[in-house]
Write a structure and sequence with these properties.
9 strands, EC 4.1.1.37, 343 residues, porphyrin biosynthesis, two-stranded antiparallel ribbon, globular, single chain, alpha/beta, Uroporphyrinogen_deCOase, Uroporphyrinogen decarboxylase, binds coproporphyrinogen I, 50% helix, cytoplasm, seven-stranded parallel beta sheet
């Protein structure tokens, strides 16, 4: 059995106190993050600066002693490595050059060339694997193909992923060729992170919830299965966390269908339901509402206890249902941790 608490949970061990980390734990709610980010300049410069990216990854570990650190990077670095233009508009979010035609697809670089752009990320991983405390697990990550494709097609974040759904119905071969290219790049990217020292990898499918029926099977389940099987073939023993956000009933059977060691769940599903329908197949991660990190108080304590209690019968990694927001109070994070660790 592994020693680190996160790896124990991923190996299927039920623990009296669940290990804890938080999506977006290195982020704007922390003053020390804002300071380093200002030093780096813009967000992308921070992602591609190994020393500073490692520094912001370490900040929440120093402050809170989380059981896992997640590499500081972004899911949109893969499109950029494939040749898309990428920039961030302050206060609005990412912008990318769009791909909606074969000509656009033809301009993408071959997967073999992605490392030229992504090498600094691997260097961040190498620094972290030297500098993290020995009990802390290092998680690498990538966006899942559907979620990454929604940004590459629309050129920005969208509420309903309309442009990606439109391309899927209007030019399915092109849509599928794009997903295949992202799938292949993701395997190479995650493998390189593992070779650099990532001990676990996570696939973020933030927009999986807008895929229904057959589309969910073809574009959320199948790419995850392909990526996970190739990662496991190349790197036996490396656990994978899958996060098909807002999958609803699609969470049921997701471990078995994809080979994921852990399924992360968002806060739209009840923890008791998760225990009954998802945790029966293996480790689960989640799922406190991020808004508690803003509002705090007794409601935060009660809800944290309720989730820990509902999921105590099986392997569980405590996390939020989605990323912590910039308006969160750092003291509420400590309250959540104290509630979990001290009862
Ligand atoms: O100004 C800033 O500091 C930028 C805010 C920010 C941060 C801190 C962005 C822009 N990305 C990140 C880091 C990040 N992104 C991490 C680092 C590790 C950690 O969790 O601490 C990770 C894992 C991501 C993953 C990511 N990026 C996702 C998947 C998870 C999710 O939140 O659903 C997505 C969809 C993105 C795209 C993205 N990057 C940034 C923003 C604001 C967005 C969302 C854009 C949108 O849809 O409108």
């Amino acid at each position: 059995m592994p020693e680190k608490t996160i790896l124990k949970a991923l190996a299927g061990e039920t623990q009296a106190t669940p290990p804890i980390w938080m999506m977006r734990q290195a982020g704007r709610y922390l003053p020390e993050y804002r300071e380093t980010r200002a030093q780096a300049g813009d967000f992308l410069s921070l992602c591609y600066n190994p020393e500073l990216a490692a520094e912001v990854t370490l900040q929440p570990i120093r402050r809170y002693g989380f059981d896992a650190a997640i590499l500081f990077a972004d899911i949109l670095l893969v499109p950029q490595a494939l040749g898309a233009d990428l920039w961030f508009v302050t206060g609005e979010g990412p912008r990318l050059s769009t791909i909606t035609t074969q000509a656009g697809m033809d301009k993408l670089k071959p997967v073999s060339e992605i490392h030229e752009t992504l090498n600094p990320v691997y260097e961040t991983v190498r620094i972290l694997s030297r500098e993290l405390p020995k009990e802390t697990t290092l998680i690498g990550f990538a966006g899942a193909p559907w979620t990454v494709a929604t940004y590459m097609i629309a050129g920005r974040g969208t509420k309903d992923q309309g442009p990606a759904h439109a391309l899927k119905s209007e030019n399915r071969p092109l849509f599928e060729a794009l997903l295949d290219r992202i799938t292949e790049a993701t395997v190479e990217y995650l493998s390189a992170q593992i070779e650099a020292g990532a001990e676990v990898v996570k696939l973020f499918d933030s927009w999986a919830g807008s895929l229904k029926g057959d589309d969910f099977d073809r574009y959320a389940v199948e790419p995850a299965r392909l990526i996970i099987s190739q990662i496991k073939e190349r790197h036996p023993g490396i656990p994978v966390i899958a996060f098909p956000r807002e999958a609803g009933d699609g969470y049921i059977g997701f471990h078995k269908r994809t080979g994921a060691d852990c399924v992360a769940v968002d806060d739209s599903v009840d923890a008791a339901w998760v225990a009954e329908h998802v945790q029966v197949d293996g480790c689960v991660q989640g799922n406190l509402k991020s808004s508690h990190m803003v509002t705090g108080g007794q409601a935060l304590v009660d809800e944290t206890r309720r989730i820990v209690d509902a999921l105590k019968g099986g392997p569980h990694i405590f996390n939020l249902g989605h990323g912590i927001t910039p308006d969160a109070d750092p003291e509420n994070v400590q309250l959540m941790i104290d509630t979990i660790r001290n009862g």
